[in-house]
Amino acid sequence: MRVRIETERLILRPFVPEDYEAAFKWCGDPDVNEYMIYPLYKSAEDVKTWLESRKLDEPDNYDLGIELKESGELIGSGGLVYNAKRDVWVVGYNIRKDQWGHGYVPEAMQGIINHISKTRTIRAIEGQFAAENHKSQRVMEKLGMHYSHDSEFEKLDGSRKYAAKTFIKEF
Fold it and tell me: Domain with 107 in it: what CATH number?
């Protein structure tokens, strides 16, 4: 989605291909990637290819870059994607390791939720995380989400399977 959302400390905006080097700082970090569905990016050029392939005009996909207002530095990505079959918005995010623990992800996600809710009805938001990823659980709790059920997911390349938890918030 081509939107620009501002929160107290952040600007949430569409990615552009020129973001590839900044995005590689988290897409290529094994610690950030440990619980992500996508495989670890091996080069900034691979990230550039991914950014160039993205479709920016999908009305049900708010996957945005997270930029610090103060410095203009791109530090992560996050968003919500609408699942029409289940009538839920699915939450996803990742952020550079040196930016963990500052509350940026809940702030970004709440900003996107607030933006979407101005024009659309949100029945529920849902997120899934590796059961051992307590940081993601904390983010979802800060968004008012609660445990729904146990689940599992696998990296897109099949390299690892995770026991997971699904959290939900109904509006």
Answer: 3.40.630.30
Which domain does 82 fall in, by range? 5-170
Q: What is the pTM of this model?
A: 0.94
* Residue 56: per-residue pLDDT: 76
pLDDT of residue 1: 73
Given a cut of 90, whether residue 58 has pLDDT beyond it is no
Kindly give the residue spans of alpha helices, DSSP state H, lying in the chain. Answer: 20-27, 30-33, 44-53, 104-117, 134-142
Distance CA(72)–CA(54), nearest Å, equals 22
Phi, psi of 170 (to 5 degrees): -100, 145
* Cβ within 8 Å of residue 66, ≥6 positions away: 10, 12, 74, 75, 76, 77, 78, 93, 95, 104, 105, 108
The three-class DSSP label of residue 130 is strand
- Per the listing, tokens 């996508």 go with 38
The answer, yes or no, to whether residue 55 has pLDDT greater than 90, is no
Rounded to the nearest 5°, which phi and psi values hold at 40?
-65, 125
Count of the separate structural domains present in the chain: 1
